[in-house]
Amino acid sequence: xxxxxxxxxxxxxxxxxxxxxxxxxxxxxxxxxxxxxxxxxxxxxxxxxxxxxxxxxxxxxxxxxxxxxxxxxxxxxxxxxxxxxxxxxxxxxxxxxxxxxxxxxxxxxxxxxxxxxxxxxxxxxxxxxxxxxxxxxxxxxxxxxxxxxxxxxxxxxxxxxxxxxxxxxxxxxxxxxxxxxxxxxxxxxxxxxxxxxxxxxxxxxxxxxxxxxxxxxxxxxxxxxxxxxxxxxxxxxxxxxxxxxxxxxxxxxxxxxxxxxxxxxxxxxxxxxxxxxxxxxxxxxxxxxxxxxxxxxxxxxxxxxxxxxxxxxxxxxxxxxxxxxxxxxxxxxxxxxxxxxxxxxxxxxxxxxxxxxxxxxxxxxxxxxxxxxxxxxxxxxxxxxxxxxxxxxxxxxxxxxxxxxxxxxxxxxxxxxxxxxxxxxxxxxxxxxxxxxxxxxxxxxxxxxxxxxxxxxxxxxxxxxxxxxxxxxxxxxxxxxxxxxxxxxxxxxxxxxxxxxxxxxxxxxxxxxxxxxxxxxxxxxxxxxxxxxxxxxxxxxxxxxxxxxxxxxxxxxxxxxxxxxxxxxxxxxxxxxxxxxxxxxxxx
Length: 588
What we know:
Blueprint: E1 3-6, H1 11-15, H2 19-33, E2 41-42, E3 52-57, E4 60-66, E5 71-79, H3 80-88, H4 108-115, H5 118-121, H6 130-134, E6 141-145, H7 151-169, E7 178-182, H8 185-198, H9 202-205, E8 208-212, H10 213-222, E9 230-231, H11 234-247, H12 254-268, H13 273-278, H14 290-310, E10 312-313, H15 315-326, E11 335-338, H16 346-355, E12 363-367, E13 391-394, E14 396-397, H17 402-408, E15 417-418, E16 424-425, E17 431-432, E18 440-444, H18 447-463, E19 471-475, H19 478-490, E20 495-497, E21 507-511, E22 520-526, H20 536-541, H21 546-564, E23 567-576
Parallel strand pairs: 1-5, 6-12, 6-13, 7-8, 7-11, 9-10, 11-12, 14-17, 18-23, 19-21, 19-22, 20-21, 22-23
Antiparallel strand pairs: 2-3, 3-4, 4-5, 15-16
């Protein structure tokens, strides 16, 4: 069966064609793959006798050349007269010539890494950053920076360096002396797999425990309980708080109460009513008079007591308990490395502070406030983690192209990001070393057209030489994700969940949340429509609380920003009807 692939050199030009010309081009490609080969005209006087032109739209033609077997390669699409002129100048190529991968361009020091297999690229540290990972610090250290600055790779190399150093200093003690922790399970598994590449010696690798922050808390508390603690999910927690608010006749929503509990009481570790009345409620816009604080305190006290009796916990509550347990015994680790630090709750930071003795190289913290997808506000200094004078702010991206950054950064809006020490964080001066094609934004008339367009675009990437596991497709909810997987599988493109670890010759498919912390060559985001993003459930969860509503919308902005910047080489975004209000309008 015939097939038509887009030549990598043409990808960038293809992005700038008018939508109707792009649609015509993709229709011709679909015809080739289905066996209905359009008429191809020979070009009189062409230097390559195999060159052909094929109509893609009125007065527009594509120039194609033989590739391998019954396959062809599309070199360009131009107005017919220009296409014929271009075709005459095409020089013959050996039929076994294969297109090169559409890698972005970068500085000389990265040229070898960019052309290496992608799994090697994923552990490649920029030469200038080795000093950060191998330095000796007199206390805790912090690294911040925007997407693509290499923060996660720095965390990986730092953990590996500490393990090697620990093996040299304590050869007789083979134990897990280094904790590498992060926010979710998918990223923890990815970090573990990549650490295996950096530490091939099993004796050294055994010195690093890679765990999510929640798994650390759970293991500590479980070691002091007869039965495993049972976690309550966010939906059930919100339902219970709504019932409490109604039954107690409080003039506050359930959403307000759960946030007050987690973001003030648990965050500050408040144990008594006088402490609560005196405390500063940073980030909580709604004022609470002392009499209202008494009401909230009594409600929370009864609610938490009932949870204790039932044996159910929330993750921040579990971390707070783990911090108390660790405070009464010897520290677990000699060093702790924290990735995605911006999303940790203060109770989780107190647990980490108790898990490692205060001293040289105790905590190494990596994060980006602009990628925060939680409401957690943290002041590291107030939690006994002093990074003053030992901070590094990264402003150079080498893992995301400038074109993707230019498109994605405005998604954050104008609201400043709060850093991990109550300071404002800015992306001023942030730029990339890589250049590539501009992101593509596709508006579709209905969901069926959106799925067809996605399938065509994934095929463009595959035909251009991108390995399936270098491609990720994501939607905001599981309903969209299921439609994506169904469409790609129907086209013969294997898929696996985006959190799948290890090598798999398949396109990764999942929700935007599942992309957090991961990296791919090409990313497609589907369903970025105004009726889906922000999702209705997120708006309703605010329960009319204006502050909660603003926070929910900002979380969606940051989530979309994070998802877009998971792509190194190319980004594709599609929507049905109007694009999401979070997206800066951008036509093809």
